[in-house]
Here is the input.
Amino acid sequence: MQKSLLLFFISFLLIIRISAQTKPIINEEYIDNKLEELRFDEKISDNDKEKALFKLKAESEKIGYNWGILKSGRRVIEIYERQNKNKEIIKLATELKKIDAGPKAARTMANLYRASALSLGYLGLDEASLKDFRTAVAYAKKIEDPDVKNYTSGLIYSNITLYFFNKRLENKSYKDSIISYHKKSIAASELITGKHEEITTEKKYSNISFNYVRLAILYLEEANKPGNIEIAEKYLTKSLNIVNKYNLLENDNVILMNQLSWLYLEKKEYKKTIEYANLARDLEKQFPDPTNRVESFEFLSSAYTELGDTKNAKLYMDKYTHLKDSIRITEKNNADQSFNVLLSDSKKIEKRKSLKEIITVSVISCLLLFAVIIYWKRKNKILRKKYEKLITKLNSIDENQEISSNENLLQALENFEKSKKYITENISLASLANDLDTNTTYLSEFIMANKNNTYSEYIDNLKIKYILQKLVTDSSYREYDMNSLAEKCGYNSSKDFVKAFKNETGITPLYFINKLKKDNLYLNLQC
Here is the structure.
């Protein structure tokens, strides 16, 4: 018995010793090796790679290895960039910016600030974006290797144009800044020798190709100006030649195909428009990105409209409108959350103790119960206030709108509003752009900049405002059913009309009509 116990004890000690020997020693060398393994492991999924990188980041923090913290965090951001997770990029970048890993981290810091700046710009936080871009440029200048420095600088110069692009409708001179930075990016990229193991010839020409596409977009936005279509075509042809010569297959090629689709839309070669938009959609399946997909839908809808194919035109316009609205809602939510991240500077919220949680839940439960009790009493009062606010708004419509930088287009929009053509059921972005002698992309962004709405929201606003004035000034309208009212202001169904009415006013059309009848209002409004 004693011999058996002794053998068991010896075996147990051996197992412990073997386990201790096989357990890796967590040090800087171990972390660096693991990071390199993950970097070149193409079999592991992004999700698993993200978890492994966060684990390495945590281990680096335990041993105070700043370079490991920075590298593992930057690799996570690279994953987020592929997934368009702008909110997550900003949150993690804000944390990593505080890490000091010395001069060897210049490239990593440059790319960290560049990624943060792009995400901030995509979410409309323009000034914070520009600040990070400038910091990225400063770090890029500290990079010692010439090829790495030129490649990193080329990316930053190309990306910084986002700031000026977002504000180009406010200041016409920003177009010159965009062109200047794209040319600086091309010049920096052309200095790359192609001899660096990582900064390959393909990377060099991928960035040059992308800059040509972005330059083409500038001229397509003003396609009505003499010579602009030809300049845009020259840049797009250069980009396409590079893609074919070096067999480049990246997300940027989706953008190229979409811009070729736009080019042929402006040239009125609508079958080619459809061809390139469909090529973009096929590529987008490999590199999913809703912003590229929505652009393809827009060009397809416009092309089919011009070809008289109303069925496909409506199909793709519906897809475009739905996806565009979804993107805008997502961007707004992400922007709000990212703004909070910037304000809080990524401070971790301390965990509440269980007792505090119980108290909080109890208080919330009581408040909810109280809210339910008074809800029905207050509902009518709230609706009444909304109604009164709406009536006041209708009485104080200001026709002297502020003039933006593009006075001609704004005047054309005002003429369109006065003509009341928006009550036509099938009024589309493409048809309105054609009537106003501009293109769909520019008109959509112009409406967003000057009316603070997407195209569909802008049209809904006009339609509902029209029917509100009719209901107030013409009592016969109050006797119409919902289908008739929907038809009067250009909706295909009463369901769409009621939804739009409530979105615009906060109350239903039935409630509004009943209150009008009850209050017997006689208002003198100018239509």
In short: The two ends are 105 Å apart (CA to CA).
